[in-house]
Amino acid sequence: MNQSFETQVRIAIRALSDVIAPALAGADKHVVEQLQLTIATLGFVADRIPEATRFARLELSSCLALAERARAIVQPSLPAESEVLAAGISVGEEVLALCVRDAADCEVASRHLREQLAALVATTHGSPCERDLTAAILDGSEAMLAQARLWALPFGFELTPEALPAPAW
Amino acid sequence: MSHPVLSFTEAQRRHPDEAMIARIRDRYPTEPEIDAVLTRKMRRRRGDPYKAVPIERLVAGVTAMIGEELGYEAQVSNARWLSGGASKLQMVFDLAWRGLDGQAPESVETLVLRMEPAASVTESSRRREFEVLNAVQGVIPAPRPYWVDPEARHLPYPGMVYAFAQGAAKPSVGVEKVSGLGQNYGPELRVKLAPHFVSLLARLHTVDPGECTAMVSFMQAQAGSNASVIRQVNAYRRIWEEDRIEEEPLLEVVYQWLIAHAPPVDRPSIVHGDYRSGNFLFDEASGAITAWLDWEGAVIGDRHQDLTYATLPTFQHLSEDGRSVLASGMMPKDDFYAAYVAASGLPVDPVRIRYFEIFNRYLVCVLTLAASARASLQAGTHQDVLVNFVSQMGHTAIADLRERFLEVTR
Q: CB-based contact (8 Å) between B385 and chain A?
């Protein structure tokens, strides 16, 4: 049986940490720095691989919720744009319903919805629904951004990780 | 005014054609030199990914470049890589030469070649960096620039040569972070560095950019007009369009707000653009700042841009008492602004401060979530692993932008 991706990455990390790094003592600073960053990046991958599909599904769910909200806001004044967004929502829901789909499918559907939402913000600029759509984007982004920060936690940029909510994936 | 909404696929972003480039240029007009740099980036993207450049290739290029500039043969030796920074490739070397006019006795000077890779965290102009370094000589400590190869006639990519500046980038004790972000200098050194940090910014901002004849690649900012601010916002929005991996609807909301609320510049200044902890060298014994580095983001614009950049959360840390937040590891934000007013004689306008707090957060999001992510995705740099690492800061940065945007617009 093949080793899992996570196991293989951890094997590579051990080799880099325990064998390669000591052998580079005295090398140029940028060489050592890149090795340390490589080890940290692989550590992130090893931590997250087992959860990747669940995270991608969570992200798609959040995008769908925000898109539904945006569609309700613009539907009365921009029926054509609303229909276009509805088509994107339909695709996203279909992907989400198929639990056998992998993370990449969810990412594609999420990115499509993100593009549609940003385009809607540009289209509605100066229109009567701008205010409500802006509020929906700001509101809907909060939980999504918090989860994205949690996801990237292994990179170590969060000053107070304990202030972040629990993972929702 | 309503503009057409641009829509490009990931495949188009990976291999942009001339029609795509033209549409983006038309939609987000900016300064001509910035436009040229970003256009070149997009055209370069169609070519091969970055290949490691042997140091011998750089030695040959820099020797040819200097020889042509001097008109006589000068000897390059002792070339070695210079680490530090996330965006440019740097080589330090010794030059045996007889001065700019060839009449001086032969001497050896240590110089730095600063060259861009195929893609970068901050795509920028070596020509502009060279010009602004010339302009600030005698005003603020900065490496003396010698020669520039803005179109890569001698080097693999555009580059410039400047004097090697003495000093430390980080204290000899303390925790290091990527690119010096959130650098803690420690209480003793901080007391010495902080006044210098403020007074040099004041000195830079009180230079009249209209008198800086060397800065020919910069568009002047007009007092009473917000055109220069809008050009800058458009430059970052353009990078977002060119480089992003995935859209963030929140950034479109913020972009619209930045355009609608761009304040007129009250007094044009030379703006460093990256004035923060980690971007200067210092003498650890005296606490004197010996050189300001990384001038590639310099513009002629509004001083509040630098003031708010130096106070971004990314560059802060808590003081030893655990209560005060120190901007750029120097002093609390309000103290920093007060010290700046005293040193420069220029007012700090709270409305402009709030605007540029949003502007700079937007800029950081674009450079991390778009430029850095794209550069590493397309294998465009000499240290993709570092650039990819930096891109992961973007999640924290955009959450911070959202929070501050809500506070400012409420």
A: yes
